[in-house]
Specification:
The chain is of the alpha+beta class. Helix content is 63%, strand content 14%. Among the domains are: 178 residues, no CATH class; 143 residues, 2-Layer Sandwich (Heat Shock Protein 90), CATH 3.30.565. It contains 13 helices and 9 strands. The strands form 2 sheets. Strands 5-6-7-9-8 form a 5-stranded mixed beta sheet, with helices on one face. It has a 4-stranded antiparallel beta sheet with strand order 2-1-4-3. The protein is rod-shaped and about 175 Å long.
């Protein structure tokens, strides 16, 4: 599955607001440009209408005054009132010839528009378009007035208006983004608390609860979160209690089996050894050829008794409550070193005082170490196994490292690891099993200490 890039929600929403704002500014700019173009054409049309009306009055005055001078058309009187920079007035005769034309000059703009804007504006609005009005006197069309504006002047005016909007956008948009980001950061601040709560839940801290929030949506999440945490806490407590009972029953079955083996099978082996010894004495006097068979029976019985002794030790180890956790673990490690005959070297180190550790914690830690050593020696084929047990203010940490095969399936998913997980879960602890940094496997167990346990340890210290 591909990992999609993740973006901060505040940044994403701020960028969307910025994009929408920029689109709104663009729409407003387009509206102003269209409005300005229409206003320019409306002004040209109105000027053309005024000039046409003035010329019609001139022609009517010429016809009513005696000895009229033939100075029609005369644009000078009206030009003095309507001329603006870049404006051109003209009179086109019936034949299409320009009989008179006036154009006012336009100063060079201080900030000329960019060529790209000028080309874009001219392609959309056609600046400099002529506005024409007919001059009609007594039903006869004498010509028409033509009004136009220099395209460069109109484009410069449009750029001036657009520049003002762009300046407003350049100032308002960053300010808007900052305000939106700050508002979102404040509104989404509870999400950090939700994330912290989820991380604590993932770390098995099921006592985590979220406080009330102002937003209704976050309050709904808070209610679901707290209900889920409460349900998980209750379920884990019930599971831990059931696991403790199962472990206690398992230990009781082991003790019962150990007693049965010791009382029945052990006595039978002792009897076999005694009979073999008696048979050897008889054979030495009457049938020397049976001495080797008697010695074989005695050796076999002795080997079976050694095997039985090891099985009894694993089924019912020395009482941790009487010997203490440290002495019991040291004896366990020494036993493994003796049985391995140098093939696997076991070492253990303690950091802290474990004398007053609660019996349940001590017994489970002993069983966890016992299962871990069995996995390392039998399944992973390790030649070196190191154990370290550390007492911390609020927890106990167990670290077991070996140089065996870390990808051995039995070492990761066997019954031994399952039993360790059950015991760790019963103590509300954490267990991790993974490949070591330098090869082999690394087992990490962390058992939290309850408040009463810590007080007992502090009092003993």
């Amino acid at each position: 599955m591909w990992n999609r890039p993740r973006f901060d929600l505040k940044v994403r929403l701020t960028l969307r607001v910025a994009a929408i704002s920029a689109a709104c500014f663009a729409a407003i700019s387009a509206y102003f440009l269209v409005t300005a173009d229409r206003a320019a054409h409306a002004r040209s049309d109105s000027i053309a209408a005024i000039v046409a009306k003035s010329l019609e009055l001139q022609q009517g005055k010429v016809q009513w005054v005696a000895n009229p001078r033939s100075d029609f058309p005369n644009l000078d009187p009206v030009a003095a009132y309507v001329m603006t920079p870049g404006l051109c007035l003209a009179f086109r005769g019936p034949g299409g010839d320009m009989l008179q034309r006036f154009c006012s000059g336009a100063p060079a703009p201080a900030n000329p528009p960019p060529q790209a804007f000028a080309a874009f504006y001219r392609s959309l609005f056609d600046p400099g378009r002529e506005a024409a009005r007919p001059v009609v006197v007594r039903g006869t069309k004498l010509g028409e007035t033509v009004v136009s504006v220099d395209p460069a002047v109109q484009t410069a005016e449009a750029w001036h208006e657009a520049g003002r909007l762009m300046l407003a956008l350049a100032i308002a948009l960053p300010l808007l983004c900052v305000l939106v980001y700050a508002a979102l950061a404040r509104a989404l601040r509870p999400t950090r608390m939700i994330r912290t709560g989820l991380e604590r839940i993932a770390a098995n801290d099921l006592t985590t609860r979220l406080p009330p929030f102002d937003l209704a949506e976050l309050s709904a999440i808070r209610d679901v979160f707290n209900h889920l945490a409460q349900s998980l806490d209750t379920a884990l407590a019930e599971r831990s209690e059931l696991t403790r009972k199962l472990i206690a029953l398992q230990d009781e079955e082991r003790r019962h089996l150990a007693r049965e083996l010791h009382d029945e099978f052990g006595q039978s082996l002792a009897a076999i050894r005694a009979l073999a010894s008696s048979a050897r004495q008889t054979a030495a006097q009457e049938c020397p050829s049976l001495l080797s068979e008697c010695d074989g029976i005695s050796r076999t019985a002795t080997g079976m008794m050694e095997t039985l002794r090891g099985a009894l030790f694993r089924l019912r180890p020395p009482d941790v409550e009487e010997l203490g956790l440290v002495a019991s673990l040291e004896g366990l490690v020494a036993g493994w070193n003796g049985r391995s005959r140098g093939e696997t070297r076991f070492s253990i180190r303690f950091d802290g005082a474990f004398e007053t550790l609660p019996a349940a914690v001590s017994a489970n830690l002993y069983r966890i170490v016992q299962e871990a050593l069995t996995n390392a020696a039998k399944h992973a084929g390790a030649t070196k196994v190191s154990l370290e047990l550390t007492m911390r203010p609020d927890e106990i940490a167990l670290a077991i490292d070996d140089d065996g095969r870390s990808n051995e399936p039995a070492a990761k998913s066997g019954m031994g690891l399952l039993g360790m997980r059950e015991r760790v879960a019963a103590l509300r602890g954490r267990l991790s099993f993974e490949a070591g940094p330098n090869g082999g496997s690394a087992l990490r167990v962390v058992i939290p200490l309850e408040a009463s346990d810590r007080q007992l340890l502090d009092h003993a210290a």
